[in-house]
Every structure is written in C-alpha cells, then in structure tokens.
Amino acid sequence: MKTCYGFWDGEPFDLRNASLEELPATLNIEELEFFDGSNPVDAFVSHRGFIIFNPEVSLIKVLRDYWEKASENSCGKCTPCRNGTALVYDLLKKASGDKHSLSEKDWKLIEEVCTLMVESSFCGVGQTVPVSLIGALKFFPEDLKKNVAYTSADQYSVVTAPCIEACPAKVNIPRYIDYIKESRSDLATGVLLRNYPLVGSCGRVCVHFCESACRRRKLEGPVDIKNLKRYAADSLGESVDHLFKPRRSPQNKPKVAVIGAGGAGITCAYHLLLAGYPVDIIESKDRAGGMALTGIPQYRLPKDLLSSETSKVIENLGGRVLFEREFGKDFSIDDLFSDGYKAIFLGVGCAKGTKLGFPEDEGKIVGYTDGIDFLRQVEKSVSKERPLHYEGDTVIVGCGNVAMDCCRTAVRISSGKVSVVYRRTEQLSPADPVELHEAHQEGVSFHWLTAQKQLVIENGKVTGLLCCKLKVEGDPNSRKSKLTEIEGSEFVIPCSRVIAAIGQKLEKELFVGADKLELGKRDSIIAVNENLETSRKGVFAGGDCAVGPRSLIEAMAQGEKAAQRIQEYLEGEKFSFDKRQRVSDMIKSAGLFDDAAECKPVISTSRTVIPELEPLNRTDNFEEVELGLTDDQAKEEAERCMRCYRVLLVETANPIGKTAK
Ligand code: SF4
Ligand code: SF4
Questions:
Q1: In the chain, where does the domain assigned CATH 3.50.50.60 lie?
Q2: CATH number for the segment(s) 5-161+647-652
Q3: Ligand 1 centroid vs 111 CA: distance in angstroms?
Q4: pLDDT tens-place string over residues 469-525
Q5: Is this prediction's ipTM beyond 0.95?
Q6: Does the domain spanning 355-502 belong to CATH 3.50.50.60?
Q7: Distance of CA 184 from the midpoint of ligand 1 (Å)
C-alpha cells in the first residue's frame, strides 16, 4: 500500500502522520487498492468516505469528479439535492481550476449545503454524496485547498444500490420502482427491457436475490421488488412483444446461431438482434422458454405469457426460432459453421434430472422418476388441456425449488397424499420460503431430518419408500453439521410414486464426435473461460449448461454477457475489461454495503400482502395462484422504496483495461 490518507465511516486516517496511522476497523483497504490487474488506484470515493492512495493526487479534483457524477444523477425531486449538487459541483470546479480559489465564504457555504443535503434529502444520493466532502473539510482542509498539477490517467464511476448489486443482471431497480410511483408502468417496463425481454415472467418466478439485500428489510420487511416488476409488465395491458414493431432480419452483419430457447439463449439473441446481428435460435421443443417452460408449472407462470416474451419478441425483432430440431441428433456445431453461422451460443441448460443413486436408477420401474421428467410430462399434458391424473400417494425427495414445483404439481393431479422427504430441517431448506408456505397451505406434508434408503417395489411398480430418521451432530442450523442415522428408526412411506428432486445435470450425450467440448466440474457443465468461450473457437456457452443449475435471472444475465462477448469476437476486437463487474467485485470483497447506515424511510408501512387464490380453489387446477398487485397496492409498495443509491468513483494511475493482468 502506498502512503495514503482518507476518511472512512466518520474516522480520519493518514499514513503520513504518525498520530493518525491507524486505519478504521471497518475499512478493507487491500480490496480497494487495485482496480484492473496491476493498475493502481489513485483514489476511491464512496458513500462511506474517500481514500487517497497516491498523495500526488489532487483531493479537490477527485471530489469534483465525484460531485459531477452526483449532479448528473440527482433526480431533482428534492431541493437540497437538486440545487445542492449543482452548486457544490460548480464551486469545486471553480476551486480546482487553474487560477481560481474559493473565498472562506464559499467554503462555508459548501459546508452548510453538505450538512443540509445529508439531513433533508429524500434519498441515498443527497444523503450520502456529501459524506466524503464533509470529512475532507473537517480533517484535511489543507490537502483540499492545495493546488496540485497531477491528474489521474483514467476514472470510472457507478451509481448503484444494494438491491442492484444483488441482482445478477444489475437491473436498475430503484429506477423502475420510481416510475411505478409516478404511474408510468410503460417507462418502468422500459427500464427492465434494457436487460431482458422476460419482464412479466421474471416478475412471477424470480428468486429475488435483490429482496434479500433490500435495506427496507431492516425495517418492516423488504420491498416487494419481484411483484412490482410483474405489475409493471401486467399493467401495460398487452405483452411486451407488442412494444417491438415487427422488422426484417438484419442483413449486413455476420449471423449467429443460438442453441436453446431458454432464458440464456433468448436474452443472448435479444441483445444481438438489438445490436443488428441476424440470429437464429434452434430449439428442440415445440415452444420457447427452456426450463421456465417445462420446469415451472402453469400455476406460477402462464405459458402464453412466456411465449409472448420469448419467441414472439425474437421474431418481432427479425430473428427466427426454429423449433423441434435437436442438437446432437438433427444437427451439429460443424453443420452450423458450414451453414454460414460465424458464432454459436450454447444455452442448452441442465435438462437432465438426477435420480437417487438406487440400483433401480437405470431400469424402468413404474412410479419412479426424476423431478424434471415429471414436470415435463405434466406440462405437456396441461398445455394440451388434458392434465394427467394419478391415483395413490406421492413422495418427493429433496426440498429445493424444483421439489416445491413437484409437490405442488402432484397435489393438483393426484387424489392421494403428497409428502416431501428432506435430510435437514425446514430452516435449512433451500426452497423459497413463499413456495414452502404455499406447499404447506396446499396440504403437502413434510418429513424433516429424514433420509430415503430404498425403493419398495412389487411387480415392477413402486409401492413405498423405505426411510430412516436422522440426528444432527452439532448446530442443527448449519448445513455443515454431520447427520447420522438413528438406529431402529426405519419406516416405510406407502406410495405409488417416488419423485427424485435432488438436482439436474448437463445432457453431455449431446456433445458427440467433433462437437466434443471440454467439460468442467466433474463433467457436469461445459467449461468456459471468463468471456464465456468454450474450448472451441467461435463457440460460447452460458446459463445452466456453463455454471450448473441456477435461476432464470442468472441465466438471463449470462445471456446478456454472452451477447456482448460475441459482438466483440465478431468485430475482431479484444474482449473488453468488465469495469462494471469489477466494481461489483470490489463492493462485495470490501463489504462496502455492509455498513450499519441508518435507514431513513420516506413513509413507514409494512409490505403489501399479494392477493392470491384461496387454497381450496386451486388444488385441482393450474390457474395462476398469485393474482398480482392492484394499482393502489403497487403505488403503496413502490413508495416504500428508499432509493438507496450510492455513488462510487475510482481514479486510476493508468488507462483502464490496458494493463496486463
Ligand atoms: S430524491 Fe434523491 S436524487 Fe432526487 S433530488 Fe432528492 S436526494 Fe437527490
Ligand atoms: S429500499 Fe429500494 S433502493 Fe433500497 S435496497 Fe430496497 S429496493 Fe433497493
């Protein structure tokens, strides 16, 4: 670390001064020292303070750059921030100019405006931007007023929020919530369409990482970000595909093939089409959606909506979706290159369910299946309006989100009891708590701390599942605690169906002959580098098939990234340095959003309860259970968002993205 000084969480530090050498305990300075490879950071400014790593740097110029970004991002709703950011930026510009200096009166005015902004601004921009300048004025007035010639070679700034950082696609959540407050659902949807076309679908099934990071969680509960997204899309009246006027396929650029019409493939194709590349998606099923089509039941995601936000959008943008063509059977990667495609994106998912490791796994036992296969069969029957009907009881093994989809689906198609067997406690279940709650409501019973031991089979048919009870050695709320079988606890759950919902994997049988790509992680995924390139030139992969089974939003984020990398590849450019991702990495590793800053709610209200079908009215059909927010509820929920925007600035000694890693 160079000789540095700064101000962090209210405390000054100065390695040039023996009495201030101690760094604040909450500052993870090593995580902020380098931005891109060995390119040193000259200065870093955030909502918690500033660090000047290079003492040659002009403190006033760094803060001027920071306030410039702040003034560009003040939304203007409240006077202290609207006028304050503009006024302070102008004064800092004047103070950092060649011949100008400020009078004591001007400095006093800056101080007063900063204090006023912190105390009375409506949101995170006005409340936190002045923090660093206040610290500099109080503890480093001489450095602030010193005239220094050195200027950093480059800088990068970001306006973000805890919810944005938690979202894999980095959706500007407070921005779309703002538009809902203003009854502008069209603009709210526009914010979301910058990232992906599946707005209404994601608004229904997203695993909402953002809500776990929402600062309102510290008060009465997180903002219902997911359902506000759904509201934005639903209140347009028509699906988002109508927003894209049909256009002809772009002609002038190299064409790209996307294999798989799931979340990753659709999003990759969407961004490439918007950038003017001709794209064909090749899909093995008769409809688009991937795991969202076959793995998520209709009562959570209506499939007409999914089609309108996937294949219809792609076709309106001039792309083609070629259905019922199976990769590895009907065509190969070589065929696609021979057909003139210049780049290929693989978004084939992890579409193969995992069984329980029983001797019967490979055989044909009636009533024994994996969760993916079960959901696929039911979806097919429901979409043909002839839902399957099963007699007898069903046992689901596993307790993740696929297990919840399986048990809630089984309730709807069978006359018997449905139960779930899970090795750990309910608290450690990986399923979304909302899904668990709904499953309880729909009558599913749960066997916690229970393990499956053996199928009970008669005449080639399942008649039960032999299980045993487990005891936890150590902390029952830790996944690391050892589980041991309780002697003599064996029991049989009589049933006619056992569904294994314990995982999914890549269908690696698809990759045969010359299409053999390097695989990773015990051969369960396609190996890709940080640019999503596979071992074969011009072939990229993303989503579940490259990272393992994850959520729709993670797949879409990978699709967007792949589109960027494919464009760079086709243009013959070097892959660009991902500055935005690097800032996210720094936020995470330095714990920049782990501060205990007080939440200042605009209003104090609890989270809106989403209306839904009564349990009695939903267990014999596939009608959508959650009914969505009404206009009034959506506005009320949107008002709960505190706009926790934070401005971050990095200034570096060398141009960003040019330093050898
Ligand atoms: S609402 Fe926030 S961004 Fe808008 S002017 Fe006020 S403090 Fe600034
Ligand atoms: S209150 Fe709003 S801006 Fe703050 S974290 Fe939650 S959703 Fe994001």
A1: 355-502
A2: 1.20.1440.230
A3: 19
A4: 999 998 888 888 899 999 999 999 999 999 999 988 888 777 766 677 888 877 778
A5: no
A6: yes
A7: 18
